From TrEMBL:
InterPro entries: CYTH-like_dom_sf, VTC_domain, VTC_sf. GO terms for biological process: polyphosphate biosynthetic process. Residues 2-206 form the VTC domain. This is Molecular chaperone. It comes from Arthrobacter agilis.
């Protein structure tokens, strides 16, 4: 089970510093944080967003993901079927096409959705929001679990200004069904998991006219945002 926490930057640093379990940090070529850029696609009627907002089964997300540091790009389709299991499938994708779906890309999306949830979007898929952040990945060998820390989370709608999550990070734990050691440490520090989706929460925060539904509590508490340049 994945659990997500929005935590103030200073508090997160203190809590992680006091976590005394054996923790390994992913490091590549001397780097410990890596930049991710994602562009999410939806129909003009925001079918993907609304399916998620209302908690519908057989929902989906379509995005391109760019691993900025390694200059690698992918087209990804995430689906959640009748058994509430999330499946992510992807293919390599040209960086120059990260903000559009090519005919081949659209064929892949339609084929994947038809096989996974039995339907395809009725409208044209277009970019609706872009996210960017730096990610640190932790590994806890005692449990074989992972956690990620996303810093500088930024959202931007097409043609709009970029907004960064100010003074806060998103911690996500991935520990199977039971709570892991890091979850319990966060709880002991008074930090509880909440609902946040980089796609849907970003959409709801930047467009208050959209139904927040599943993310209402997260959005209504007032995520601290500041304008930035990408």
């Amino acid at each position: 089970m994945d659990r997500k926490y929005v935590v103030g930057t200073r508090l997160a640093a203190n809590v992680l510093r006091s976590f005394d379990a054996d923790v390994r940090v992913l490091e590549m070529l001397g780097r410990r944080s890596f930049t991710y850029d994602s562009v999410y696609f939806d129909t003009p009627t925001l079918d993907s967003y609304l399916l998620a907002a209302h908690g519908r089964r057989r929902r989906y997300k379509v995005r391109t993901r760019t691993y900025v540091d390694s200059a690698a790009g992918f087209l990804e389709v995430k689906t959640e079927g009748a058994r509430a299991a999330t499946v992510k499938e992807r293919i390599p994708y040209a960086l120059s096409d990260s903000h559009r779906l090519t005919p081949r890309g659209l064929d892949y999306v339609h084929e994947t959705l038809a096989c996974s949830i039995g339907s395809v979007p009725s409208g044209v898929l277009r970019p609706v929001i872009e996210t960017r952040y730096r990610r640190i990945t932790l590994y806890l060998p005692a449990s074989g679990s992972r956690a990620t820390i996303d810093l500088g989370v930024t959202w931007r709608r097409p043609g709009g200004q970029a907004h960064e999550l100010d003074g806060a990070v998103i911690i996500e734990t991935k520990s199977g069904g039971a709570a892991g050691a890091l979850d319990r440490h966060l709880w002991a520090s008074g930090i509880r998991p909440g609902r946040i989706s980089k796609f849907a929460t970003g959409m709801a925060v930047l467009d208050p006219t959209l139904p927040a539904n599943r993310w209402h509590r997260t959005v209504s508490t007032g995520l601290p945002l500041r304008l930035v340049s990408l």
